[in-house]
Amino acid sequence: MKTIIFALDALELTLIDLWRLDEFKQKNFGSYEVVGLEALSTPICFSAILTGKNPSTYGYTLSYLTQNLEQGYPTWLQPLVWVRKRFLRNVKSLGMRRKARTIGLFEAHSRNMTEDQKNLTVLMRLESEGYTVRTDNVPSYDEDAQANFRGRMIHLIGKGFEAREEHVEELLIATRDRWLRNLEVLDSHDLTFIYSPLPDIAHHLVHHEMELMLLERVYRSLIDLPLLFELKDVAVLILSDHGYLHEFDETGKDISAEHSHVGFWSLNVDTEVVPTTIFDFSELIYHLVTT
Ligand SMILES: [Zn+2]
Asked: Ligand 1 centre from 144 Cα, in Å?
């Protein structure tokens, strides 16, 4: 059946429960384990979701992702990158990437899978069987390196609340726009797969217990996306790539911002394939689209 997957980075079940956001819990839902991966890194998690295999078995690794970042420097800066790597290992950061980006040199390169690796995904399998697939910024697959959602967030960590809030609001608007744009062409695709960097980025940008209200607002705004829970004759799979756990000290300061090993899924139709680990989704997606 026609299927839409809405991937919400780090959507956290304990907060859905805490804030009683029952809308997220469609007809079928549950948590699943994110186990056995090299890291709880978003592109690696998505690669596992798409292939049903451990990305380390086909070379989609942290070192592959880092290499691709370094190739983003222009040729004349490459020797400097090498020098830094070779001799300045212990120097944490020379801020090269940041400087290069500031002066417009750093062209963020793709961190997506190679064509061979993409051939392992359920998306390619469906396309080879004649199904039409549309993806929108799915990490590891067709993420637009220029958009670089998560990269921009890193520079805001530790900055004033207003700057962080502004960035989150910007991303909410962008998510809403992309959601609507995909809805407009839903009819012409068998599978639509949309990724939002929210709520993950909002999680990373909450530094104090008092700021949780920003996060709650993000969760509620996502629920309010037009038609999200009202689409007819379409399977809607909401999916996170991992969870996110906050821990606050006695002053309310966030002391252990971390991705967690528990992801969330929810589906508006019945299914025979109930995911229990991150490797079960490629089968679920195949099953939804082909039955
Ligand atoms: Zn993530």
From this structure: 16
